[in-house]
């Protein structure tokens, strides 16, 4: 299993809505509210690249209130 961290910037006032929506997604294992330039950080766990791309492209980008995302895919070194 692999994981990625999604850095999320929300539309003003939509942070709670996005947070709750993300918690309901099966691939999202953790969501944190953060202060600063970003609003939320979410962790997704996936079994393969197809599942990852479906989550990132098919779901994350279409959540109402999400303005911008940046994805950090974890790797082993």
Main sheet: which strands, in order across? 2-3-1-4
What is the assigned CATH homologous superfamily? Lrp/AsnC effector binding domain/regulation of amino acid metabolism (RAM) domain
* Tally of structural domains: 1
Major β-sheet annotation? 4 strands, antiparallel
Unreliable sequence segments: none
β-strand number:
4
The succession of helices and strands, N to C, reads EHEEHE
Coarse morphology = globular
Radius of gyration: 12 Å
So how many helices?
2
CATH architecture classification? 2-Layer Sandwich
- Overall average pLDDT: 92
Distance between the termini: 15 Å
Task: Give helix % range.
Answer: 25-40%
In terms of DSSP E residues, the strand content is: 35-45%
Characteristic key phrases:
single chain; 77 residues; alpha+beta; Alpha-Beta Plaits; 4-stranded antiparallel beta sheet; 2 helices; 26% helix
Could you explain how this protein is built, in words?
It is built from 2 helices and 4 strands. The protein has 77 residues and is an alpha+beta fold. It has a single domain (2-72), classed as 2-Layer Sandwich (Alpha-Beta Plaits), CATH 3.30.70.920. A 4-stranded antiparallel β-sheet has the order 2-3-1-4.
């Amino acid at each position: 299993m692999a994981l990625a961290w999604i850095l999320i910037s929300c539309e003003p006032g939509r942070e709670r809505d996005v947070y709750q929506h993300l918690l309901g997604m099966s691939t999202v294992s953790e969501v944190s509210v953060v202060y600063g330039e970003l609003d939320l950080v979410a962790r997704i766990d996936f079994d393969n690249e197809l599942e990852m791309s479906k989550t990132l492209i098919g779901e994350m980008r279409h959540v109402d209130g999400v303005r911008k995302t940046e994805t950090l895919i974890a790797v082993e070194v």
